[in-house]
């Protein structure tokens, strides 16, 4: 019987170009996500010169900016960061749902890893917890996922 071949990404061969696209809305939370993402990339050996940060008004605008970033900048991976906090209207559902759906479609369409660090939470307290306190930093986690995907693509014989 032939052994099963397995491949997975790691965090040692993560050199490449990364773009972080950031929704400014709820910036008091999102700024911490950006710090976490940049810190993770740099700690794992990504040169700061290979990290671009693009700011957009909010989560609704993220998908279009991500698409343009991939087309123009040709990064190895994109990290999308933002915060959508539930309010008293259905606006949350439309913004969060459409943003997530578009990101999923874009990574398949563009054949580029796009990691989702967009918080979709019920309260400002939950957002703060996920931006670097009790629940870790979801920006850092999105950066880790991006690096793992870049590594995986390299190990599979391609870079995106």
From TrEMBL:
| Any one of the GO CC terms | riboflavin synthase complex
Q: What reactions does this protein catalyze?
A: (2S)-2-hydroxy-3-oxobutyl phosphate + 5-amino-6-(D-ribitylamino)uracil = 6,7-dimethyl-8-(1-D-ribityl)lumazine + phosphate + 2 H2O + H(+)
Q: Which residues form the active site?
A: 91 (proton donor)
User: GO annotations under biological process?
Assistant: riboflavin biosynthetic process
SUPFAM superfamilies xrefs: Lumazine synthase (SSF52121)
Positions of (2S)-2-hydroxy-3-oxobutyl phosphate binding = 88-89, 130
Binding of 5-amino-6-(D-ribitylamino)uracil, residues = 25, 59-61, 83-85, 116
One GO molecular-function entry = 6,7-dimethyl-8-ribityllumazine synthase activity
**UniProt keyword terms in alphabetical order:** Riboflavin biosynthesis, Transferase
Any idea of its EC number?
2.5.1.78
Give the pathway annotation.
Cofactor biosynthesis; riboflavin biosynthesis; riboflavin from 2-hydroxy-3-oxobutyl phosphate and 5-amino-6-(D-ribitylamino)uracil: step 1/2
Q: Does the keyword Metal-binding apply?
A: no
Q: Give the InterPro entries listed for this entry.
A: LS, LS/RS, LS/RS_sf
Q: Which PANTHER family match?
A: 6,7-DIMETHYL-8-RIBITYLLUMAZINE SYNTHASE, 6,7-DIMETHYL-8-RIBITYLLUMAZINE SYNTHASE DMRL SYNTHASE LUMAZINE SYNTHASE
Query: Family assignment?
Result: Belongs to the DMRL synthase family.
Subunit annotation: Forms an icosahedral capsid composed of 60 subunits, arranged as a dodecamer of pentamers.
Q: What does this protein do?
A: Catalyzes the formation of 6,7-dimethyl-8-ribityllumazine by condensation of 5-amino-6-(D-ribitylamino)uracil with 3,4-dihydroxy-2-butanone 4-phosphate. This is the penultimate step in the biosynthesis of riboflavin.
Protein name as annotated: 6,7-dimethyl-8-ribityllumazine synthase
Species name for this entry? Answer: Chromohalobacter moromii
